[in-house]
Amino acid sequence: MALTHRGGAMIAIVTVLVALSLAAVLLRILARYRRRVRFGMDDYLCFLSAILLLGMLVELVLWVLIGGNGSHQADLSEETIQNFYKIFLANQFTYFALSPLTKISFVCFYRRVFTIPSFQWTSLVMNMIIALWGAAIFVACGLQCRPLSAYWDHTITGTCFDSTKFIIVNQVFNVLVDFAILALPIPMIWNLQRSWQDKLALNGVFAIGGIVCLASIYRIVVLFWIDPADVTYTVYKATLWTHIEPSIGLTCSCLPIIRGLFPQFKLSGARQDNAAYYVPTDRTDTSISQIPLSAAKSPASEKFFAFKLEERADRSLSLSRSPRDISSFQSPPSPLAIEVRTEIDVVQNSGQSIRSHNQV
Q: What's the angle, vertex CA 95, arms to CA 82 and CA 33, rounded to 5?
């Protein structure tokens, strides 16, 4: 059938967004190699999401060309209408698999960055909820009609539930989960011992997922615009945003990692004396659990962090010294020199005790 204006516009818009998403995934891979960071579960789920996103694009092209999406239902043949509902069902299956994968990839990235036990448990529970809901909605999609062929062949006697309401219920859950994922890292970031400008910048990096929340909300709105009397024509906006939302989600999930390719955009705020680490959103081989938090600490824990920072500084200093400097450093002190020795014992047991002895 001839390509309609609406059909052509959908294909053009979604193709551009999918191309941008795939470019983001390729840059993510490049960033991992440049920073010498191993691929993790978040990366593999991202790659799988990219494949499913490509599948949705192929479905959209077929949906427009042989399914009549964007055309008035009265102008379509019975065969074309059946193709419309067949591809509609296939598109639902693909979306119901893609959406939870992208969300779990987001959370898995957070789990690589924030390795504090309490956060690990919280994020694990969230991933389990997303996975269980995704599995349930995927199975329910296959049970929309009994027999399933009654979904696209209306001459078959069968029972079906309202697919539009079914999609809306799932979309409401998606919106709630998107906001939960958006809020998940905020308490961790604001407890870091960084300047408030740095904390705000870090929240901005993670808050780009807010674009996905807006897309999810708008998709709920356009789902109410579908007219059962002319589904093939009025489903235009819903179809468009069904493809826009996962494209934006996949792109946003890659942006914190891609940021590592552009060091000029790293945090430029002045470091505090007790915050010696850069928060590595682009290098998840070093987790934020290594960064001191601003919550109240015992004197022993403060000494422990000071010891760790001093140890890092000593290691860096020893690597930067020339052989002549090292030999002069190891020579016996002159009679007029003042020698300072510091002995630090770190004992990790039930008492969590740290002893420090200074001798001048």
A: 140
Which pLDDT belongs to residue 186?
A: 82
User: Whole-angstrom Cα distance, residue 254 to residue 42?
Assistant: 10
For residue 87, give both structure tokens. 């591809």
Considering the four listed CATH numbers 2.60.40, 1.10.357, 1.20.1070, 2.60.120, the one that applies to the domain covering 5-265 is 1.20.1070
Strand boundaries in the chain, DSSP class E: 145-146, 159-160, 341-346, 354-359
Residue 261's CB is within 10 A of a number of other CB atoms, namely 14
- According to CATH, where is 1.20.1070 located in the chain? 5-265
CA-closest candidate to residue 50, choices 20, 91, 88, 90: 20
- pLDDT tens for 75-99 read 999 999 999 999 999 999 999 999 9
Cα distance between the two ends of the chain: 90
295 vs 267, higher pLDDT: 267
Q: What gap in Å lies between CA 88 and CA 141, rounded to an integer?
A: 11
